[in-house]
Design a protein that fits this description.
Number of domains of chain A: 1
Oligomer: homodimer
Order of helices and strands of chain A: HHHEEHEEHH
Largest sheet of chain A: 2 strands, antiparallel
Number of strands of chain A: 4
Strand order of the largest sheet of chain A: 1-2
Radius of gyration of chain A: 18 Å
Helix content of chain A: 40-55%
Shape of chain A: elongated
CATH class of chain A: Mainly Alpha
Structural class of chain A: mainly alpha
CATH superfamily of chain A: Winged helix-like DNA-binding domain superfamily/Winged helix DNA-binding domain
Number of helices of chain A: 6
CATH topology of chain A: Arc Repressor Mutant, subunit A
CATH architecture of chain A: Orthogonal Bundle
Amino acid sequence: MNLITRNTDYAIRALCYIVKSNKDIVSVKELVEGLKMPRPFLRKVLQELNKKGILRSYKGKNGGFVLATRPENIYISKLIEIFQGPIKLQEHTFKKKICPEIKSCVLKKKIDEVENYTILKVNSLSIASLLKTGK
Amino acid sequence: MNLITRNTDYAIRALCYIVKSNKDIVSVKELVEGLKMPRPFLRKVLQELNKKGILRSYKGKNGGFVLATRPENIYISKLIEIFQGPIKLQEHTFKKKICPEIKSCVLKKKIDEVENYTILKVNSLSIASLLKTGK
DNA sequence: TGTAATGATACTATAACAGTATCTTTATGT
DNA sequence: ACATAAAGATACTGTTATAGTATCATTACA
């Protein structure tokens, strides 16, 4: 079970790296060297971040990526959503259908409590807050 | 992402059913009819519960299953552990190896906080508590 | 001793995750 | 102009966990 999958993890690391680098523009080449990630996979991740407006990309020679918004505004929950879909700890399906007791199911209620806390907690995390606490 | 997988879910439903039935012994046949589950899969789940000492099985004609312990003592966390392994929200591996920043990694610390809460919460849930709150 | 139950075990299908490969487009420095 | 170094787009592949199926062996009751 993984609250955070590999591509989300890569995204977080890459974004932190870009912020810390203090450069105008950061290329995949530099990120690969700095973070020891598989290049094609990282590229795919960065392209997605660009599409979703987290990064801004520059093509051509000396191209690369820049944050499209301030690190305070990049929430981990948003990144999870981009790469993994909506945060949820359960589907609560039963034989591929929604659980027939969906309304009354006690188990669901209890897991929902845990889930709500998780979402609350993850919503409070931004790239900026990760970097701050790190120092 | 699923905190609870199908076999854990089936186990919980089956255990609740057995308690509610008030019978000396409950057969797979009855459980399948009562809970609309795929028979072979449920059988595998029940066999596992027997091996792990949650249920006690009786072979032969009129055989079936009985709780091996009181519902107050059957924790959801134990069931999750049986069918899914130790509860954890992250592996925190990086390229198949443990994340190189494992000691200092801020992200890991934050996810650990959420994880600890989840474990705490799930540890407080037993079959008995599910049945009680249900009424 | 037939039969209705569980035990044990091996096999299959599907989907998500992780990663690779390749070709296209674009901008820049010379 | 044009070679080159960057990102864009897209299709493919490998691995693992989940979810289930199928089959034969064993046991106990009536």
